[in-house]
Design goal:
Number of strands: 7
Order of helices and strands: EHHEEHEHHHHEHEHHEHHH
Shape: globular
InterPro entries: Nict_dMeBzImd_PRibTrfase_arc, Nict_dMeBzImd_PRibTrfase_sf
Number of domains: 1
CATH architecture: 3-Layer(aba) Sandwich
Oligomer: single chain
GO molecular function: nicotinate-nucleotide-dimethylbenzimidazole phosphoribosyltransferase activity
Number of helices: 13
Length: about 350
């Protein structure tokens, strides 16, 4: 995805779906569906990616729309648009959905992708699932000449990324998340203060954080297992990570010596523009290349996409990685914007 583009027939879109262990998460995040419904958000986002609509009900009611609380749209529907554009270029797209500790499985009725694989594990079993399922699959893809993107839909995950970075870097770092609401940001700071105090005695070693389910979230545990584990046949993978600070934080705290594979990171340029983001990225090992997308959402006809340029949505569901992939496959900005507009048009008009 990053660097020279390899001509492949299949793109494997891998997504880690999870919810951070934060009580009353709806008071901290705008990314979810509301009180007592946050667990459904990653599942519904997977449906949006595959189907262009959410099929799982909210409180017993069908609410298929991707419109978010800020009147923007979920990045999942934009990923759907980009994947459709790549299919129009002749690529085949396979979705690998990793449900990490989520009770409800996605309903992929009416999906438009070429193949879908879904896996599930209980909380705390993320490493086992990654070692048994994802690592062998990524090795297969490499030997078959197939491409991949590894993304996340981790609701509340920037809180734990912030926790880790503050603990390791020892300064009051702030990361852009799903909300600009001052009340929610104030509650988020209270949550972070409680977490920081609870785990202040932990050493700056990743294993204690991974072993404690209140000191890490499922996406962090899954990503660390992927990065730290060799393939059974010692294949060195070329991992294409598509995500923001939820992926950057584990990379920084692990350090290059603990990572068993080669990797590159693609994200949106809004991640790089966030407060403290450049300072964090400058601490990554030099071997890691971070490539931002360049597509200008102000070219859209819809205000809901313009809000991305204003910082109301920063990253999610691998959007930045999909945009970079489309850009490197030669799609023009207008082609990409047209695909995004087509995906959201049914919900905004």
């Amino acid at each position: 995805m990053v660097g020279s583009v390899v001509a492949v027939e299949w793109i494997n879109f891998v997504i880690f779906n999870a919810v951070a262990p934060i009580p009353e998460l709806h008071k901290v995040s705008d990314a979810g569906a509301g009180k007592n419904l946050m667990q459904l958000t990653p599942t519904r986002d997977a449906e949006l990616i595959a189907c262009g609509r959410a099929n799982s009900t909210l409180g017993g009611m069908l609410t298929a729309s991707p419109i978010a609380g800020s009147q923007s749209v979920s990045p999942a529907i934009l990923v759907h648009g980009v994947l459709k554009a790549l299919q129009n270029q002749g690529l085949k797209v396979r979705l690998h959905c990793y449900q990490l500790g989520l009770e409800q499985q996605p309903d992929f009725s009416g999906n438009s992708l070429d193949d879908i694989v879904c896996h599930h594990c209980p909380l705390g079993e993320e490493a086992r699932l990654i070692k048994q399922r994802l690592l062998p699959e990524l090795a297969r893809q490499l030997h078959a000449g197939e491409g991949h993107v590894i993304a996340e839909c981790g609701v509340g995950g920037t809180t734990f990324a912030t926790l880790w970075l503050r603990h390791w870097l020892e300064w009051n770092i702030s990361l852009a998340g799903s909300t600009k609401d001052p009340d929610k940001l104030a509650i988020k700071e209270q949550v972070l203060a409680l977490l920081a105090g609870k785990f202040a005695h932990f050493p700056c070693k990743v294993l204690p954080f991974l072993q404690h389910q209140q000191a890490s979230d499922p996406v962090q545990r899954a990503l660390c297992a992927l990065l730290m584990t060799r393939c059974s046949d010692n294949t060195v993978l070329e991992l294409k990570l598509a995500g923001g600070m939820m992926f950057v934080a584990p990379l920084l705290v692990l350090g290059a010596d603990a990572v068993r594979h080669q990797l590159k990171i693609a994200t949106t340029r809004w991640v790089l523009e966030g407060k403290d983001a450049q300072a964090v990225l400058s601490r990554l090992p030099s071997a890691y290349e971070v490539v931002p997308s360049t597509t200008d959402f102000n070219r859209s006809v819809y205000r809901a996409l313009h809000l991305y340029e204003q910082g109301y949505v920063v990253e999610g569901c691998g959007l930045g990685g999909c945009l970079v992939l489309a850009e490197q496959w030669g799609l023009s900005q207008q082609q990409i914007i047209d695909s995004l507009d087509a995906a959201v048009k049914p919900w905004l008009e």
